[in-house]
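fyi for ur records
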Amino acid sequence: MNVSIVGAGYVGLVTGLCLADRGHRVTCVDIDAQRVAQLLKGSLPLYEAGLDELFARHLGKSFFPTVDLTRAVHESELTMIAVGTPLENGGINLQFVADASAAIGSALATKSAYHVVVVKSTVVPGTTDEVVCRILEQASGRKSGRDFGVGMNPEFLREGEAVGDFLKPDRIVLGGSDPRCLQTMDQLYAGFGDVPRIYTNARTAEMIKYASNALLATLISFSNEIGNLCAHAPGVDAVDVMQGVHLDRRITSLTSDGTRVTPGITAYLKSGCGFGGSCFPKDVGALIRWAYEHSRPVPILSAVVETNARQSSEVIRLLEKHFADLQGVRVAVLGLAFKPGTDDVRESPALRVIAELRRGGAEVTVYDPVARAAAPGLLGESIDYCESLPAAVQNADAVILLTAWPEFQRLPDVLEELSIAPVVVDGRRVLDKSRIARYEGIGLSRAPHSPAPGSAVALAVGPDPLVAGPSRDI
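which gave:
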């Protein structure tokens, strides 16, 4: 199938190159001429594991970057909208979607053949029908369902694993305005085997994407609240607690031969420094605003966002246990990307932690093996950006790990070479705490004093600390 994609950002490039790898001819359109020129020269503007291989294989053969949207629409059977939908003033900004729809509509005005327009961008329920379809009809002078089809096909891509997620999806959701539109969309995925497919309307497809991301964000914030409670319960480690939770058969099931199957969702049931990236913060925030506008408040999702916003302070709290104040403290921050496998620093917990460190007067050094190019613009030139892990921690009073890059597993070995051991705050709980002399971790409390064997233990009974009396550990 000949496919055109409007938007050469993260979703557009991953979608386009993966579709090209499945045998389609893909034209990727972007209004940014500089970005298109960079692509034509063979350089990807972003990092995503495995994407560079697809790019090298298909550029100029089945994948064609361009600024000519009209020609791309005329020479394709289906156009995908894969532009950004940023959060603005607490709600979703649909300006890029509207602009893309108007441009596609203008192109359809001079095309006689039936064409399908598919929204790939994440948009709130009703956008495809009420915004995209309306603008397409106005700009083209044609009628949806008769002259062209309009559909919604959400993406479920995990940054760092997006290529595998697209080529081997766990589901394909197709929301179409009419049977012909759905049939055309279905043909796009003919080479994807027996993947479960949901055929529905556009509003349901839009909501499926939001519900999916909202659930995962909720699991993360739930795990972090449990972890923060564990940190105040002497002798408790959230890693052990969540391991016990994971063993529930309803989470990690047992096969007939007794083998335990650990699903990927357990990765969201671990305590850490919070979620970030281009999806969870934006999508949960947009859903909250959409719900408010429809007079349906969602207090659980509001709490998810509030818990996440506070989690960077938990990292700082652990650091401040070792210093009277942060003024002049040399802190090495390991990781800028919001997760490993990507250079995306949007809404990264590292940005919030670094901001708090700087407000406290700390001298910050940063190292990330991939995500560095955008850092000076976000953090300023006053930050010391290092080229290696050993260089980052060389003179540090403290080290904070915020991205679970595999390379950081070497940290205990690197620290053994230092004459003075820095405090290590493990914001992702990926390090072996037994190998680090001065270790602090999210969800980890100090062990209580153990009574001698056979001695009596007196239990002090007093008022409920959550109701009355001075604050204390619980």
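The two ends are 62 Å apart (CA to CA). thats all i got for now
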